[in-house]
Amino acid sequence: MNKLLGYFELKIEEDVIPIKIGCYTLEKFCESFGLGLSQIGDVFERKLVGEKEIEIPKEPVKFLATILFHGSNYCAKLSGSGNEYSIEQAYEWVDEIGFNSDQSVKVLTSFYAAIMNGGTPIKEVPEGKSKKKAPDMADLQG
Question: Which residues have a Cβ under 8 Å from the Cβ of 108 and sit 6 or more positions away?
Fold first, then answer.
């Protein structure tokens, strides 16, 4: 599997679980919420944090678990390992990583990057080529 933007590894104790957030994951995510891709924004609400209004998931636990579930199973299917995961395992991962960890931030960042690019993660630029600066989270949220 190409490790494009949207790919990361979730670390739970000694386990490393590959996660890919791209077109497939977004499609399955929307199905889980009973939405079409064009309605993906419906899973967010605007909240005032300090002096800034940001978009956050309306159901953060379900949001994280659903993304982890579909992203991990996408990688498992592509690898042919047969190690597909259950939604219950994904909820357990959310319990393990919490909401303010670097790993949960990576999930949100990867999700925002995928939806900002129409579900298609941006390819990594080979070494030596110019690379556009990644968008700031504030730009992605509003």
Answer: none
Average pLDDT, the chain: 81
How far is residue 23's CA from residue 100's CA, in Å, rounded to a whole number? 26
Look at residue 137 in the predicted model and tell me its pLDDT: 47
* Residue 126 pLDDT > 70: no
123 in any annotated domain = yes
| Burial annotation 79-115 (CB, 10 A radius, 16+ → b, else e) | eeeeeebeeeebbebbeebeeeeebbebbbbbbbbbb
What tokens appear for 109 in the block? Answer: 């960042």
Scanning 9-134, the segments in alpha helix (DSSP H) are: 23-32, 60-79, 87-97, 102-116
Q: Is 24 inside a domain boundary?
A: yes
Rounded distance between C-alpha atoms, residue 52 and residue 17, angstroms:
34
Of residues 78 and 91, more confidently modeled = 91
Whether residue 60 lies inside any domain: the answer is yes
